[in-house]
Specification:
The complex is a heterodimer of chains A (318) and B (528).
Chain A lengths: L7 H7 L5 H16 L8 H26 L7 H46 L3 H20 L4 E2 L3 H9 L1 E2 L2 E2 H19 L1 H11 L1 H6 L4 H27 L1 E2 L7 H11 L11 H20 L4 H19 L4
Antiparallel strand pairs in A: 1-4, 2-3
Chain B lengths: L6 E12 L2 E12 L3 E5 L6 H8 L7 E6 L2 E2 L5 H6 L2 E4 L11 H5 L14 H15 L14 H13 L5 E5 L7 H16 L3 E5 L3 H7 L2 E6 L2 E7 L5 H9 L19 E9 L7 E6 L3 E5 L6 H8 L7 E6 L2 E3 L4 H6 L2 E4 L3 H5 L6 H5 L15 H14 L16 H13 L5 E5 L7 H16 L3 E5 L3 H7 L2 E6 L2 E7 L11 H32 L1
Parallel strand pairs in B: 3-8, 3-9, 6-7, 7-8, 13-18, 13-19, 16-17, 17-18
Antiparallel strand pairs in B: 1-2, 1-4, 4-5, 9-10, 11-12, 11-14, 14-15, 19-20
Classes of the chains: A mainly alpha (318), B alpha/beta (528).
Chain lengths: 318, 528
């Protein structure tokens, strides 16, 4: 079977639809660099700001890549992040930073296990489970915080979780890189990742191959809620407070980031690197549109248009 | 059979019900190490169920299973696999979004020093498996991009790769070419000599006769007989399967059709991938067969005529008038109907009722003022259930509750409801029992007699020979030769059953000829 092996670059462009996200990212970056250079787009501080604003979305989107690849969805991530900011802030007030971190993780675990249990044992589709959970998490966050912001008075917590920086590099960037690296290896190279892709690619086939698909779904939903809780911890650290509004609406950006990156909404296909680039692209677009001086209403329209264009171009030709 | 071979699998008194229907009733099944054991039976006989019990997918309600002398007490796919059982599944054990190599070693991937999956190793081992089978499949291709034959080879490689002591092959050859089946058999004989027990399920008696040592026949969920193949000539096998004396396909009488005017004419029709430059004429009242191996372009030609993959070149004329068939609705409007190849995905919606499936293609006609006329739905369903003698508990039962043969009749009924003049049937008898097969062939003859023009695609040559008046042999997308059915008969042979076998051999030779002529043509083209 002598088949001509294309050069890596040739293969990249031959599959340009698959790789549209990377090409698109570069194109948009270059366009903004050329047109917005006088407004400070290329200023390192502005670029790092994009990272700061993207980090939480990216963390949640990495986990969402696993959820979507397994053929499920998690709509509760934004609300869970908001709930985690509140539980973390309240726990820090009584038990210090370590108590706060534990409370945040416990929040993610509890919500994730409940989502997973409802989806795999009770048999409610994850779309509905997590849609309901979105309301529940937000309600709980409002209730326990009395809808008020809970201040965090621990500088060390705030430094580690989102506020600090090492030299010019924000700590958030390390978090993002860590989660992306672990996520990428886990999806591409670990047995768990392969089982996730198999479950989403063909559930019956996966089960016949000896994969416990219910357990895989349970685990990706737990993973997603824990990632949402971590994102909440980062929001709380960055803004030095817990508020139920934090993370509101993030689920859409998170899903958009994953889909832009080439993850299939129908399962079986996903890449973490693509997701990270997708998240950065959304941050890039937001930043550029603000620098252009567009109004918020115009930003929404432009952002929606760009996302549709990117996903449409990535579709296989019929 | 000098020394008693050790027992590889012993299942005793297995019973299993689904929703009140007894799929298996106190069945005994025993397989020796180092034998190919054929498992036979019509649809609904319980073959798939007993295999799924053995494989751990279904939990038996009663009965005991021993594998290699050890009782099997946990009924999960993992436990069965640990006991040394491997099985290919007819169509559902591959994941389309993973590559061939990833599918073969799913959950059994090689790990590198850091515990990460080593895909390069899987690719090497997959290639070694295909080399051993002497077939060509690209281990790095996505399974979703493969054709049916390649998928089936991947399934087989997946089962073999488990180095099992008991290898179950459930209809492994339905999409394989003759030469690939031959290579598979050579390989199975080698496995057998190494002491592997092989359970082989097939609807093709000729294959069973060639490969199996013993056979077990099930009927209606009960054990009928287990015997060495020497004691089971084909007519005895069919008798046990069907439950009454039957000669199988040969007893469908093929009357000379009264050929009417030309209904459909293709000239130089070329599809997006296949077929290439096909011309043919189809008359009212005749059955035209398309013969050829996998990839010969038979199904592609059917899809072109049905508007699923519109032609890119050539002309289609219906009753002398040139027509454009750009989409399935155009074909339906010109009274062409295609009973597609993949029943479960292209033919029916399994969860919907028999009646709802029947009216799917005529929903516009029975929906005056936007509301579905339920009386007409009932009428269409009633008419088709009667006409095709479909066995269903009621017209409101889900099609998934019917046997394969009856599901196929629902698909045929659905298309007859559109009142077609030209009916194309793609592998109408694939995976259904021999009783239903004869019924469907008889139905095809009746439809032609009633003035329709019928095209039948089938990989079972005896079926084509029984059903068709003319047979077009195709290879690599090209029409090779149009044969009159009568010309394939050997005038010296008078016994109808032997006559069919003689004709089958001649058709087989024509198909092989078409391939070699085509290969020659391709070679010349590339040199010139």
């Amino acid at each position: 079977m002598a088949k001509p092996i294309p050069s890596p670059a040739g293969a990249f462009f031959a599959n340009w639809r698959q790789n549209i996200i990377y090409i698109g990212f570069v194109v948009i970056f270059v366009v903004f660099a050329l047109t917005l250079s006088d407004k400070g787009f290329l200023n390192p501080n502005n670029l790092l700001n994009i990272v700061r604003q993207t980090a939480m979305i990216a963390v949640m989107a990495v986990a969402m890549t696993f959820v979507l690849s397994a053929g499920e969805i998690d709509l509760s991530v934004g609300a869970v992040a908001g709930l985690a900011t509140v539980t973390v802030a309240m726990a820090i007030a009584v038990a210090g930073p370590i108590g706060g971190v534990l409370a945040g993780l416990a929040t993610g675990l509890a919500v994730g296990m409940f989502n997973g249990w409802l989806t795999t044992k009770v048999g409610i589709p994850s779309f509905l489970t997590t849609l309901a959970m979105m309301g529940i998490a937000k309600g709980v966050a409002m209730w326990i915080s009395d809808t008020a912001a809970v201040p965090i008075l621990s500088p060390s917590y705030s430094w580690i979780f989102g506020g600090g920086s090492v030299g010019p590099i924000p700590v958030l960037m390390f978090w993002m890189a860590l989660i992306a690296g672990v996520g990428h290896v886990a999806l591409r190279r670990s047995g768990f990742g392969r089982r996730v892709l198999a479950t989403g690619g063909g559930e019956t086939a996966a089960r016949y191959s000896g994969i416990d698909t219910a357990s895989i779904k349970f685990r990706v939903l737990v993973l997603s809620s824990c990632a949402a809780a971590l994102a909440g911890m980062l929001y709380a650290g960055r803004l030095q407070s817990g508020r139920f509004q934090l993370g509101e609406g993030d689920e859409l950006s998170v899903i958009a980031a994953a889909v832009l990156g080439g993850t299939s909404l129908f399962g079986g296909k996903g890449t973490v690197i693509g997701t990270i680039v997708g998240a950065l692209m959304i941050g890039l677009i937001n930043n550029g549109l603000i620098l252009m001086g567009l109004e918020f209403s115009q930003q929404l329209i432009a952002r929606g248009g760009i996302i549709i264009l990117a996903v449409a171009l990535s579709q296989k030709k019929r | 059979m000098t020394a008693p071979a050790p027992t590889a699998v012993r299942m005793t008194g297995i019973s299993k019900s689904f929703g009140g229907i007894r799929a298996l009733d106190n069945v005994d099944f025993e397989v020796h190490a180092g034998e190919v054991h054929a498992l036979l039976g019509g649809n609904g006989a319980g073959k798939s169920t007993i295999l799924k019990v053995l494989n751990g997918v279904h939990v038996p309600e009663e009965g005991k299973i021993e594998v290699g002398g050890q009782p099997l007490t946990t009924h999960t796919p993992e436990a069965s696999r640990a006991a040394g059982i491997a099985m290919n599944f007819q169509e559902m054990s591959l994941i389309p979004t993973l590559t061939v190599a990833q599918n073969i070693f799913l959950t059994r991937e090689a790990r590198d020093a850091r515990g990460m999956i080593d895909d390069a190793d899987s690719i090497r081992r997959a290639q070694a498996l295909f080399d051993m089978l002497q077939v060509q499949v690209d281990p790095t291709a996505l399974v979703g991009d493969l054709g049916a034959g390649q998928k089936q080879l991947t399934e087989i490689a997946k089962a073999i790769s488990q180095k099992a002591r008991v290898l179950i092959l459930d209809e492994p050859s339905t999409a394989l070419s003759v030469s690939d089946v031959e290579r598979l058999f050579t390989f199975l004989r080698q496995l057998k000599s190494e002491g592997v027990a092989i359970i082989y399920v097939s609807h093709r008696m000729d294959e069973i006769a060639r490969i199996a040592d013993r056979a077990t026949i099930l009927r209606d969920g009960r054990h009928v007989i287990t015997a060495p193949m020497a004691e089971l000539p084909i007519d005895v096998m069919i008798e046990h399967i069907v439950g009454k004396k039957s000669k199988g396909l040969a007893d469908v009488t093929r009357s000379d059709a009264v050929r009417g005017e030309v209904l459909l004419e293709l000239s130089g029709v070329t599809g997006p991938h296949k077929p290439t430059n096909v011309s043919l004429k189809l008359h009212r009242g005749e059955v035209l067969g398309l013969a050829g191996l996998l990839g010969s372009g038979r199904s592609a030609l059917a899809r072109v005529m049905a508007g699923i993959e519109p032609a890119v070149a050539g002309e289609i004329r219906i009753k002398g008038e040139t027509v454009a068939i750009r989409r399935p609705s155009d074909a339906i409007a010109h009274r062409i109907a295609l009973v597609p190849e993949a029943r479960a995905t292209q033919g029916i919606i399994p969860a919907h009722s028999v009646a709802d499936n029947m009216v799917m293609s005529v929903i516009g006609r029975i929906t005056p003022r936007g509301i579905v006329d339920r009386a007409q739905v009932r009428a269409v369903a009633y008419r088709m259930i009667e006409r095709l003698s479909i066995k269903t508990a009621s017209r409101d039962h889900a099609v998934s509750t019917l046997s394969g043969g009856n599901q196929q009749k629902v698909v045929i009924g659905k298309w007859l409801a559109t009142d077609p003049e030209i009916l194309i049937l793609d592998e109408p008898t694939a995976g259904i029992d021999i009783g239903s097969k004869s019924e469907i062939i008889r139905l095809v003859r009746d439809l032609a007699q009633a003035g329709k023009a019928v095209i039948v695609i089938s990989s079972e040559l005896s079926e084509l020979l029984t059903a068709c008046d003319r047979i077009l042999v195709m290879a690599d997308g090209c029409a090779h030769q149009m044969l009159d059915r009568a010309d394939l008969d050997d005038p010296a042979e008078t016994d109808p059953e032997y006559a069919l076998q003689a004709a089958e051999r001649r058709l087989q030779i024509e198909i092989q000829n078409a391939l070699s002529i085509n290969a020659l043509r391709i070679k010349e083209a590339s040199h010139g």
